[in-house]
Structures are given as C-alpha cells and as structure tokens.
Amino acid sequence: MKIVLSIAMVVIVMSVAGSSRADITACNNYTTSISVSFDMVNCAVDGCGGDTGHYGWWNIAPGNCATMMTGNLNPWAGCDVYYLYFYAQATNGATWSDNSSNGSNECVESSAFTTCYWHGDPGITGHEIPCTGSGERTLNYYKEDIGSYSNWTETFD
User: Fold this and answer.
1) DSSP structural state of residue 7
2) Which residues lie across from 28 on neighbouring strands?
3) Residues 14, 18, 20, 22: is their CA dihedral positive or negative?
4) For strand 83-90 and strand 34-41, is the pairing parallel, antiparallel, or unpaired?
5) Which of 22, 50, 56, 90 could form a disulfide with 116, with the two C-beta atoms 3.0–4.6 Å apart?
6) How far apart are CA 129 and CA 139, in angstroms?
7) Do the beta carbons of residue 124 and residue 117 sit within 8 Å?
8) In this predicted structure, what is the pLDDT of residue 61?
9) Structural domain includes residue 90
10) For the chain, what is the radius of gyration of the CA atoms?
11) How many other β-carbons are positioned within 10 Å of the β-carbon of residue 65?
C-alpha cells in the first residue's frame, strides 16, 4: 500500500511540475502606485525577432502585483535568460534605477511599448538603446542576475 501511494505521489508531482507556468512578475510594496518596465536579454521572445525584448509600462497599485510576461525563462523559446533589467518610477517621483556601469541606459516611450532589437543593430553599443524619435526618453535600468531560475518576481519597496 505504501509503495502504491508513493508511486502515485511521484506521478502527481511530476504532472503538476510539467504543467506549471513560469512568469515575470512585479510587486509593489511601495506607498504609492508605480510604473514598471523591463528588458530581457539573449532571447527572441514574444515574436520579437531580435535577441532582446524591451517592454513597458505596467501600472501597479500599492500592495498589488502584475504578471508582465508568462513563459519559462530558462529556456524561453530555446534560449537561456540569465539577466533581467528593470526600471520603475512612483507617482511621487521615486525611481528604482542604476546609474553605474552595471546598469543599462535605454530609450523608452512614455506610453505602452514593446521594442525588439539585436545587439548588432546600428547605434546599439553593449546594452545601450539610443533615442531616435520624439516622445522618447533615456532611463537607467538596473540589472538582476536571475541565474537559472525558471520564473522571477521583482519586488519594489
């Protein structure tokens, strides 16, 4: 009886693990609403056609979370994602960013956007995305080393 139950438990656990989702989620533990953007390196995702996808904005009220992308980060569409870049700004002016050499200067639009690019595209140096049009601004994203996690939740405090 114990062996049958043990085998049944293993089958159930394997079934659940095989059907689970992995997400990129942002949670707002800050006192005011925030807007979040992220960048995923080394992956052609979500029909991007480039090796990097750049996404924004998610408006998240205090105490809430938003799923920004659904999938399996490692591997996602046959690639390995080891780093995510984030930028957030609060309605009171606070920001989560990185002005050091570890960060990433990226041009973004003020409205919702999805930008896809190759690191070899003209004007892109390293992980820098230059502004080329009106209504764009450069922001300093910070880098998260997510290692081999298959999902990620970024919390803004």
Assistant:
1) H
2) 156
3) positive
4) antiparallel
5) 50
6) 10
7) yes
8) 98
9) yes
10) 18
11) 17
Residue 114 sits in which domain range?
24-156
Judged by phi (left if over 0) then psi (alpha if -120 to 50, else beta), residue 42 lies in left
Q: Identify each DSSP E strand in the chain by its residue range.
A: 23-28, 34-41, 52-60, 65-70, 83-90, 95-96, 104-109, 113-117, 136-145, 152-156
Q: What is the pTM of this model?
A: 0.74
Q: Mean pLDDT for each 10-residue chunk of the chain (157 residues)?
A: 41 36 86 93 54 84 94 57 86 92 78 71 57 80 82 93
How is residue 60 written in tokens?
């998240």
For residue 12, tell me if it sits in a domain: no
Please state the domain count of the chain.
1
Using the CB atoms, write b or e for 27-56: b if 16+ within 10 Å: bbebeeebbbbbbbbebbbbebebbbbbbb
Q: Evaluate whether residue 123 is within a structural domain.
A: yes
Q: Which two tokens stand for residue 24?
A: 């990129």
Is the bond preceding 57 in cis, omega lying within 30 degrees of 0?
yes
Two structure tokens written together for 26? 């942002």
